[in-house]
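Input (structure):
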């Protein structure tokens, strides 16, 4: 629908839903069917961001992790009742400000678990076997044929997978590692009783594991949790994988470790300040780079959008959404 909100709409008591992005579901049809008379504003294609929408009359906002919903944004949306974030992480939303205004915040857990774990496992495999380097060699036309010492990688069978953050995605990663014949250890605020994996302290995770995969939320405690000191604890043959948040890793320290050979390889799907990328990452050796596609399967993105629609309909119908994450002010 049109991204223009008229003055009549601003004065109307009609319920108004705004999305900053086109979605792989028919959001308008679902909401109007459930709540007749509701107006739905959604871009025909792409992501217009918060700058491309008018929230003054909005009762509900569907947004992406690219949208920084802070106190200023919320102050400009006096009717807002819910922010439905089409992501599992909510570090792009000021939860305290939302709670003070009694605005519900929802996210999209569970449905992206398997897709994200698959991508993390893929990054590990590509880094371990230097697939990116091999493909570039072939495409360049410089490959001269098989050689005994060409692009030697590391085997994963029998090695130890270390997982930082043992929630849904971390446990899905662990299941895949066990299927590959790997041992699994993990660091988490609390032990997970249902798992046979070994709970260890954070520094032991870094010093013991052959692969470390990050699946933790971004919090003050996990910001730059992978710093120069912890990278220094890792084996020279180890691999780091990050599909969590870019700010969990000190990127200059990682670049230094890879460049010096102190770390065998790494695979990243998330970055500090993305979509901007630290220029030295682009030329860093034995580093696999993906453009934040952890949940990028048709099935998962559709399910994420559906959870947002369900949350909006629930709140506007006077019900508690299933995936409520608002904290107390």
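Output (sequence):
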């Amino acid at each position: 629908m049109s991204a223009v909100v008229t003055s009549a709409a601003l004065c109307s008591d009609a319920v108004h839903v705004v999305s900053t992005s086109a979605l792989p579901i028919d959001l308008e049809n679902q909401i109007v069917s459930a709540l007749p008379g509701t107006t739905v504003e959604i871009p025909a294609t792409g992501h217009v961001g918060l700058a491309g929408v008018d929230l003054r009359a909005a009762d509900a906002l569907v947004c992406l992790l690219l949208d920084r919903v802070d106190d200023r944004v919320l102050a400009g949306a006096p009717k807002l009742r819910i922010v439905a974030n089409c992501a599992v992480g909510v570090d792009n939303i000021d939860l305290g400000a939302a709670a003070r205004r009694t605005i519900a915040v929802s996210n999209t857990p569970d449905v992206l678990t398997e897709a994200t774990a698959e991508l993390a496992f893929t990054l590990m495999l590509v880094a371990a076997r230097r697939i990116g380097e091999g493909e570039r060699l072939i495409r360049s036309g410089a490959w001269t044929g098989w050689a005994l010492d060409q692009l030697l990688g590391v085997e994963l069978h029998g090695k130890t997978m270390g997982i930082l953050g043992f929630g849904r995605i971390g446990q899905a990663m662990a299941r895949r590692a066990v299927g590959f014949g790997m041992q699994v250890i993990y660091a988490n605020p609390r032990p997970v009783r249902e798992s046979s994996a070994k709970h260890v302290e954070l520094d032991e995770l870094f010093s013991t594991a052959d692969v470390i995969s990050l699946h933790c939320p971004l919090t003050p405690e996990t910001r730059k949790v992978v710093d120069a000191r912890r990278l220094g604890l890792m084996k020279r043959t180890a691999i780091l994988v990050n599909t969590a948040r870019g700010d969990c890793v000190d990127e200059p320290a990682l670049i230094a470790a890879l460049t010096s050979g102190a770390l065998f390889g790494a695979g990243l799907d998330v970055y500090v300040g993305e979509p901007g990328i630290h220029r030295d990452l682009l030329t860093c050796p034995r580093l696999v780079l993906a453009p934040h596609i952890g949940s990028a399967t048709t099935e998962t993105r559709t399910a994420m959008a559906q959870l947002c629609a369900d949350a909006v309909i629930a709140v506007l119908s006077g019900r508690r959404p299933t995936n409520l994450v608002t904290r107390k002010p």
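Notes: DSSP finds eleven helices and twelve strands in the chain. The domain at 113-289 is CATH 3.40.50.720 (Rossmann fold).
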